[in-house]
Amino acid sequence: MYGEGILRGLGVTLRNLVRRPFTVQYPEARIPQHPRFRGQEFTWYEQRCTGCASCAKYCPLGIIRIVTDPDGGNEQDGGSYKVDVFDIDQARCMYCGLCVEACPYDALHMGSGFEAARYSRADLVIDIDTLREREKHPSTWFRPQLEREKSDPHHDASQEWQSVGREPFLWHPKRPGQMPEEMDHRSSAAGDYGGEP
After folding, report:
1. How many CB atoms lie within 10 A of CB 126?
2. Which of helix, strand or coil describes residue 35?
3. Residue 10 has what DSSP assignment?
4. What are phi and psi of 87, to 5 degrees?
5. Contact (CB, 8 A) for 183 and 190
6. How confident is the model at residue 100 (pLDDT cuts 50, 70, 90)?
7. Maximal C-alpha separation, the chain
8. pLDDT tens column, 58-87
9. Count of Cβ atoms closer than 10 Å to residue 146 Cβ
10. What gap in Å lies between CA 137 and CA 160, rounded to an integer?
């Protein structure tokens, strides 16, 4: 029949005309985000950072720049590095999270924000002072210790470095297959590293 295609097309239009819209009028309305959301506003805990530059080494785009001073004190325990420069160029970041996975001391966390647009690319470089001063709302992505505590970076208050904890060594050969609940009473006596009490 002539015009059947036009009628079918109009039928689709009429069906969608009365349907409830599923778009959100951002920024007036917002969709709730998952605590594992990998966004901007990286969270860096200077107290945990040793300046090892593992995050910079494993970044596939090379956007993390770290400059350290070997005379960071703590000579009694072999010495420490003082981090002088810690820059993240989030204009080029693809938020893969490899830097967070590579950090052996849980000093770097993915952020929870996504509204860091700027007019200049130079303004998108996060420097060490910004990382020190900003509120700490770490994402629970790749941080099972935060997921166990039901941490929500979008609603919780800023978290200090002591409260984010370290992931215990659940894979320890002397304790194979232990659940996190069994580790809780031991970790207080053995420290956050899951060693034998």
Report:
1. 23
2. coil
3. H
4. -115, 140
5. no
6. very high
7. 91
8. 999 999 999 998 887 777 766 678 899 999
9. 25
10. 9
Both tokens of 45, joined, read 């805990």
Residue with tokens 């029949």: 1
Displacement of CA 147 from its chain's centroid (Å): 12
**Residue pLDDT, tens place only, 122-180:** 999 999 999 999 999 999 999 888 988 898 998 899 999 888 877 766 655 665 555 55
Q: How far apart are CA 126 and CA 193, in angstroms?
A: 31
- For 188, residues 6+ apart whose C-beta sits below 8 A from its C-beta are none
Residue 149 in contact with residue 167, Cβ under 8 Å? no
What type of residue sits at position 160? E
Nearest to residue 147, comparing CAs of 159, 160, 164? 164
- Angstrom distance (rounded) from CA 42 to CA 103: 13
